[in-house]
Design brief:
The protein is of the alpha/beta class and 389 residues long. The protein folds into three domains: 210 residues, Rossmann fold; 86 residues, no CATH class; 80 residues, Translation factors (Elongation Factor Tu (Ef-tu), domain 3), CATH 2.40.30.10. 23% of the residues lie in helices and 30% in strands. The protein contains eight helices and 18 strands. The strands form three sheets. Strands 5, 6, 12, 13, 14, 15, 16, 17 and 18 form a nine-stranded antiparallel beta sheet that branches. Strands 3-2-1-4-7 form a five-stranded parallel beta sheet, with helices on both faces. Strands 9-8-11-10 form a four-stranded mixed beta sheet, with no helix packed on it. Helix 1 runs parallel beside helix 2 and helix 3 runs antiparallel to helix 4. It is globular and about 70 Å long. The chain starts with a strand and ends with a strand. The mean pLDDT is 89.
Length: 389
Amino acid sequence: MKRVVVGLSGGVDSSVAAYLLKEQGYEVIGMFMKNWHDDSVTISNECPWLDDSNDAMIVAQQLGIPFQTLDLSAEYKTRIVDYMFREYERGRTPNPDVLCNREIKFDIFLQAALKLGADFVATGHYARKAEIELNDKKIFRLMAGKDSNKDQSYFLCQLTQEQLSKALFPIGELKKSEVRTIASKIGLATAEKKDSQGLCFIGKVHLPDFLQQQLKPKKGKVIVVDSSSPVFNRPDVDLKSMTGPYRYNEGSGKFSGEHRGAHYYTIGQRKGLNMGGFPEPVFVIGTDTVENIIYMGMGESHPGLYRKGLFVPESDVHWVRPDASMKVGERRKLMARIRYRQPLEACELVRAVEGLYMVFDRPQRGITPGQFAAWYEEEELLGSGVIGN
């Protein structure tokens, strides 16, 4: 009998994943990952980790499977939290959930599961795994979940072949409504529980308080850039220009107030700006953490919100399918997304010595340095990379 350790998060998805695996004849062990100790920045009524841990334990009891709690808070701080601080300090916006899957769930957690004699680890992700044979070698494919509204393959975009070989995604063929139905039918305690909107296995965190623990406020100028103002590095026919960020100087706009620190803001942000008196909503269209300046644009159609493409430095290019990687000079038409739940967009990937250029058929809103871009061929996620500045 194959043994599988399920990451029980205290939610309905991982609960049903554990149930399905048991029904399929696996020896199932439930394990909750404790990734956080500091409750001072956790919004207590939004899925705190303690409630999630208790729910996970109750589900394990209902299913009659062994249950353990694994304290990974030290590793989470080193690999995820410290990385987030460094990225925000640089004016970039990291994605902790993608990192959590790469560094915690399918690395440290996986190693702990293997020490328990597990053959696989399983999660409640809406994604699928497939296999093919190429040159007498087994290749694992990361496929989108069948529920297009819940597809979570994007969050798994940094996994390796070795990690995929040990991964199971039991609910990947199901829709969310079907998962809820199964949970209700067998009376799971998490059947009606709302989905968590917080960080991976942590819960809802008040991000400004979280960041201010290490990133101190630093007053700076807010410059509002008119939509017709000149910008540097405006997209043109040149590949580097098309995929680079807009560059502004103070002469591009008008001084309109102060902010609390450029490292607190991200491209496309609207909330928390405390900017009033404009006929239309204003958005962050650029940040300069060196000069501590925030550039704002008014209106949903401001050109500063949109870019034709992006660039991923060579060191940040990752192929889930190394056999599908591109050679220098190669161009390939694929589909891609730059954030979770964004519809896939047609693009062309251009492989260069310095990295990977991605040029979209349509300009994309809110391309944000530090986030992950993932590229697909039909339903298969082939690779991903961190968006450069």
